[in-house]
Amino acid sequence: MGDIINYTLFTIAGDIPVLLIDLLTSILGLTCVYLAGRNSKYNFWVGYVYTFFLFLMFWNKNLYASMILQPISLFINVLGHYKWTHPKSGEESVSDKSALKITTMSWPQRGIAIALVFILAALWGYTISLLGNSWMAGKLPADPIPYLDACVTTLILVAQFLSAIKKWECWVAWFFVNITQLILHISVGHIFMPIVSGLYLINSIISLVNWIKLYKKEK
């Protein structure tokens, strides 16, 4: 497994490796968010495979908060897949009664979501910093950037949950996810993922505009 994860396609500038897993993860990620931004339920099928590859990629870089996130992401993905395709009475899309309609959050709900990001990121970052430096010191490599790692994963959890229940604010959360991920991937030396994060950033803006338009049609 280690040989597969670290398989190098080629190098840039003579010593910067471009890994196969980085390329595959990038392609899957771009496909997944493109479909989600177009309100397609098929994004979930791609998301299942994407989650697996992300787990391997983060494991390879000792980014434990991001790695641990993936099983949770898988659960949210399954939840979202079900909710998008099995709407309750009154939650159906006007254009497709078998699909969940896009809705919005109240201001108190937005405040709770923002507070959760700060609180959980701080607690998670502290826990991850102890994992490699105290609890498993000498046995497990330390996370190089625990608080940024935790911030990214917390934002992703919030964004994924909002996506699963089809709130258009999910794309605002994804916007901030993409910015922090861009910094994270550059920090650990990923080659393709910073480029992908930049494309995600563009997609989040386009998708936000698209979902708001769809939301207004559903009202």
Short description:
This protein has 219 residues and is mainly α. The chain has helices at residues 2-5, 20-37, 43-60, 64-85, 107-135, 146-164, 170-188, 192-218, and strands at residues 8-12, 16-19. It is 71% helix and 4% strand.
Please, could you describe this protein's structure?
This protein starts with a helix and ends with a helix. 71% of the residues lie in helices and 4% in strands. By secondary structure, the chain is mainly alpha-helical. It is built from 8 helices and 2 strands, in the order αββααααααα. It has a two-stranded antiparallel sheet. The protein has helices spanning 2-5, 20-37, 43-60, 64-85, 107-135, 146-164, 170-188, 192-218; strands at residues 8-12, 16-19. It has one domain.
Strand order of the largest sheet: 1-2
Report the structural category.
Answer: mainly alpha
Tally of structural domains? 1
Mean pLDDT: 86
Outline type: globular
C-alpha termini separation: 50 Å
Continuous helix count: 8
Q: Any low-confidence stretches, pLDDT <50, length ≥5?
A: none
Total DSSP E strands? 2
Secondary structure elements and pairings:
Layout (H helix, E strand, L loop, with lengths): L1 H4 L2 E5 L3 E4 H18 L5 H18 L3 H22 L21 H29 L10 H19 L5 H19 L3 H27 L1
Antiparallel strand pairs: 1-2
Helix pairs in contact: 2-3, 2-8, 3-4, 4-6, 5-6, 6-7, 7-8
